[in-house]
């Protein structure tokens, strides 16, 4: 894992590049357009600082590249060869969704088979109530975590989900630190 200092430095460099592209594309911007440009360039910079190696960074890039004008920004921040290489890897997300569906079907069929076997035996074991409650809480929290991390819905493995989440949190923390330092620098100049 990279040091936080190098991550912040890389993010700041890419973010400034993204802001320059956004500003040069349109001279007069409303407040809402500026806000969207800042967020978009921050997201693209954060994704590019991880080189598109993580699921969340590829998901951010896919979300940003849905509009044609954003593709120019992404291409400039990443660089043309890196952008093309990344776009070749992004379609690999689609087969993953099919795999998730098939795993869900397999999981459902296995659980229904287990239920049938239990009923055939004729004796139902009393399941510990605390165990069921804990299992449901973990399931709900896992679902919430998947919804918070970009591209988390596509991650099947819990360990991978936690690794992606930790990496995403580190990147967000670097982004917040950089933005806070920029805001502090602006305060000092006033």
UniProtKB/TrEMBL annotation:
This is IBH1-like N-terminal domain-containing protein. Pfam families: IBH1_N. GO terms for biological process: regulation of DNA-templated transcription. Keywords: Transcription, Transcription regulation. It comes from Tripterygium wilfordii (Thunder God vine). PANTHER family: TRANSCRIPTION FACTOR IBH1-LIKE 1 (PTHR33124:SF5). InterPro entries: IBH1-like, IBH1_N. Residues 6-68 form the IBH1-like N-terminal domain.
